Write a sequence for this structure.
């Protein structure tokens, strides 16, 4: 289905609040300038890169101090708690729920500034219940740590350390949830600096505790650092959030309260939570099957995932900045603007992730050796981790595309609605709310089946292959489901652009692998391979007509070779 406005979907979509040719909806607000988006992306990318760099340093210290053994396996089982809580409560589910909710509140605020502030009303209606629920979850995770460890990794020879670490990391559930809520509110207000800095302070807290206490507490110091860092995240966000809340209009009109009020829709939480937990279950499958493999396997998978996800994270940063724009457009009923933004995000994220994938495919051994091979982390660990990275890389583009697609999907039915909306929806639309979770369940089935078939023969590589196959299957289903849900994507255009990017990445991988093999030194090999991949991807992408590559290449060429005064004079008037 490639038409711009599918007639069959018309009855399933919310009625747009503005039609083509009419004046823009007042509540939508002016679109941010491209300069603002570039600045927001730069700030977000810079701070996220700093957070990722500190996270990599954290993993380097873990490898140096503790290597890859039963102790690190125990910590990584406990790490499953914050590893699950972070996407659920910070980036994914909380963002999917609260960015659209705050976007709708801001639209209502702009439509009628004299009414009681919908943003404050939203906070009063949601934050207290969130704190109660998060506290209960944290307590349940701590008390149920023995059962949780048994469920996640029944093959651990000594689960006692994993139970201790799990009880410590269970603390993170409460501050992670609060941080995610505050970050979503700030991003909806187009404030990105503090939300982008939360992983910087989080990893600083881990590093501080790890450096100070690793000799005294062993690997438990890492778990304590995770808990400490989560508290620092909340401390960073509270001040900016309160300042934005105080700046809203107070409003005095009681007559307008019922028309402009927001009604909470608690059932909208369920599909979002189900999707996020099912997506995170990919990790549970790896931990479960990996616990029966030789000691160190879970650690190899973890180190490989951390390196691989650097490329994916770079692509996701694009839609982190643009998500509030999509949510605001959908809240105002402008489906065309939302579609155009989503298509652009899909292309840009694919370009960034495929470039990173080509680099990892070509340079995985030298990158792992350069980063990890020291102390207790030896050459055998390097080889095992590099092999897993190369297999993981096949699933990275799908990971990034899911991150782009799922944001507008859940924005169409946020956790709140206007009080003057009828609030009645047919069963088909309610079923479509569960489509992402169903897609992830099917993808998880592919992961489990592939892992069970391949792990006995290929070990960790079989687990990595299952992960890549499952997430790719889920991405294909979600791309189709996004059209069904109401975003009229031009699929032929989207898929054609991605095909050109994949071809460019494949060629860059071949050339980069050859260049990386010319040097034995890890640093030189990484530099040669990385430079070759970048140049080849730029050349091939431009030659194949990939817009996401051709545009930046031509812009860089113009910047390096600006036209002379005479050449400017020869241009036709008006160009």
């Amino acid at each position: 289905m490639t038409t711009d406005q599918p007639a069959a979907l018309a009855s399933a979509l919310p009625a747009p609040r503005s039609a083509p040719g009419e004046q823009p909806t007042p509540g939508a607000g002016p679109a941010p300038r491209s300069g603002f988006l570039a600045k927001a992306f730069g700030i977000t990318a810079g701070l996220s890169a700093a957070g990722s760099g500190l996270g990599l340093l954290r993993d380097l210290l873990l490898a140096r101090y503790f290597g890859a053994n039963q102790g690190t396996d125990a910590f990584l089982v406990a790490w499953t708690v914050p590893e699950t809580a972070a996407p659920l409560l910070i980036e994914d589910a909380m963002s999917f729920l609260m960015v659209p909710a705050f976007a709708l509140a801001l639209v209502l605020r702009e439509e009628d500034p004299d009414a009681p502030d919908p943003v404050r009303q939203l906070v009063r209606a949601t934050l207290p219940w969130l704190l109660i629920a998060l506290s209960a979850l944290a307590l349940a995770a701590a008390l149920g740590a023995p059962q949780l460890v048994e469920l996640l990794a029944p093959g651990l020879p000594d689960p006692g350390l994993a139970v201790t670490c799990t009880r410590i990391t269970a603390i993170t559930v409460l501050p992670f949830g609060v941080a995610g809520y505050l970050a979503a509110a700030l991003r909806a207000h187009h404030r990105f600096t503090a939300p982008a800095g939360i992983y910087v302070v989080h990893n600083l807290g881990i590093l501080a505790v790890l450096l100070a206490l690793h000799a005294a507490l062993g690997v438990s110091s890492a778990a304590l650092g995770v808990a400490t860092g989560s508290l620092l995240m909340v401390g960073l966000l509270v001040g900016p959030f309160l300042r934005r809340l105080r700046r809203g209009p107070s409003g005095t009109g009681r007559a307008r309260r019922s028309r402009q009020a927001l009604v909470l829709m608690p059932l909208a939480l369920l599909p979002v939570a189900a999707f996020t937990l099912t997506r995170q279950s990919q990790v549970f499958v790896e931990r479960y099957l990996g616990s029966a493999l030789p000691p160190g396997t879970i650690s190899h998978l973890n180190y490989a995932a951390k390196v691989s996800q650097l490329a994916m994270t770079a692509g996701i940063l694009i839609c982190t900045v643009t998500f509030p724009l999509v949510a605001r457009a959908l809240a105002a009923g402008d489906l065309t603007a939302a579609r155009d933004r989503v298509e652009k995000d899909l292309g840009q994220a694919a370009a960034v992730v495929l470039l990173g994938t080509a680099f990892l495919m070509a340079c995985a051994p030298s990158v792992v050796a350069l980063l990890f091979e020291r102390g207790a982390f030896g050459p055998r660990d390097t080889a095992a981790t590099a092999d897993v990275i190369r297999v993981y890389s096949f699933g990275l583009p799908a990971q990034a595309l899911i991150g782009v697609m799922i944001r507008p999907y859940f924005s169409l039915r946020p956790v709140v609605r206007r009080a003057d909306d009828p609030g009645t929806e047919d069963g088909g639309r309610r079923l479509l709310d569960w489509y992402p979770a169903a897609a992830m369940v099917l993808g998880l089935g592919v992961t489990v089946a592939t892992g069970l078939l391949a792990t006995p023969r290929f070990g960790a590589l079989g687990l990595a292959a299952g992960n890549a196959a499952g997430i790719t299957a889920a991405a294909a289903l979600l791309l189709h489901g996004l059209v069904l849900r109401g975003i009229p994507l031009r699929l032929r255009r989207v898929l054609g652009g991605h095909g050109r990017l994949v071809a460019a990445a494949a060629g860059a991988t071949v050339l980069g692998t050859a260049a990386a093999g010319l040097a034995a030194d890890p640093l030189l090999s990484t530099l040669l391979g990385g430079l070759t991949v970048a140049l080849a991807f730029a050349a091939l992408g431009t030659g194949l007509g990939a817009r996401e590559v051709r545009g930046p290449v031509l812009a860089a060429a113009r910047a390096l070779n600006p036209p002379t005064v005479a050449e400017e004079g020869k241009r036709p008037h008006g160009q």
